[in-house]
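Handout for the seminar on molecular recognition.
Each group receives one record of this type.
Step one: identify the two inputs.
Step two: read the structure output and locate the region that could contact pyridoxal-5'-phosphate.
Step three: write two sentences on what you found, then compare them with the reference statements printed after the record.
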Amino acid sequence: MSLPIRPEYAGQHPYGAPQLDVPVRLNTNENSYPVPPEVTEAIAAALGKELAGLNRYPDRDAVALRTDLAEYLGLTAEQVWAANGSNEVQQELLQIFAGPGRSALGFVPTYSMHPLLALGTGTQWIEGRRTASFELADPVGQVLAHQPDVVFLCSPNNPTGTALDLEVIAAVADVAPGIVVVDEAYAEFRRPGTPSAVELLPRYPRLVVTRTMSKAFGFAGGRLGYLAASREVVEAVQLVRLPYHLSALTQAAARAALAHRGVLLSTVEKIKDQRDRIVRELRSLQVPVADSDANFVLFGAPDAPALWRDLLARGVLVRDVGLPGWLRVTAGTEQETDAFLAAMKELVA
Ligand SMILES: *Cc1c(COP(=O)(O)O)cnc(C)c1O
């Protein structure tokens, strides 16, 4: 049977990496550390308090949660908006600031959801260019040439790991005719001296920084993403949010997790150590590696599909991001890194 789906979806496949049952899963940039017992207990208690009230709709505006997130960023609740993952936040941004007749520009290779969100919202997607070393190629010139309604900057960028200097973001914001979105899903993993675009918010009322609890917080299953921006942007996004989009359970669980952020974020330094170790050891094997400010590493693989299969045969799942000559590996626990590097030593030798 053929369904009357929108023509632009013909032949498309749903987004998603293979979720294979292998010992070492390093393909989706999750935090490998389980939620520790003291936090699971706090979340369970917080959820318990919500249960009798589930006959009522949740707080539409998630004010308590936004207040907690704002405190984490050093902002106020009016400058923060939250949804079920930063993907939903970004979809809302396109719904209100882009859509039919409008365009969004991103610099490829970048997060593959950005063009898919553009497709879903009827936004024209414009592929910006990067240099061979994955820097943005004349971003100001590209923005001036295309005049996009939304510019996506991803810093640190997935899948390359590259972070952007604030001067580059500011230069783009200076010339962009519409909204500039900086996707900072991996912000907590950035190396010392790499600032966050949150610092630029006071200067740019059309700048939006999106963040998530899916990576550093180890809360991917909780589905909580958020943005920081001017009060005007936050008000605009509320025009398109679905009513009661964030369940009472999600709000309560995320607040309990945030209250324990010290414990949750204590894995970040360990993960950064493994990331830096992967970079070092792959380079000593003469494997090309892109510098990374994230919890993953992009590494050279002349025959990427073959190396992906060979690693899988050794029980290690990495990501083929569809970038010829490259694969991406998540920095996990020390043991997971051991397994990945041992397999690479065998395969590269
Ligand atoms: C993982 C990731 C996200 C996270 O999306 P959520 O919906 O918050 O889980 C966002 N942006 C980038 C670039 C990512 O890699």
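Reference statements: The radius of gyration is 20 Å. Residues 267-284 form the longest helix (18 residues).
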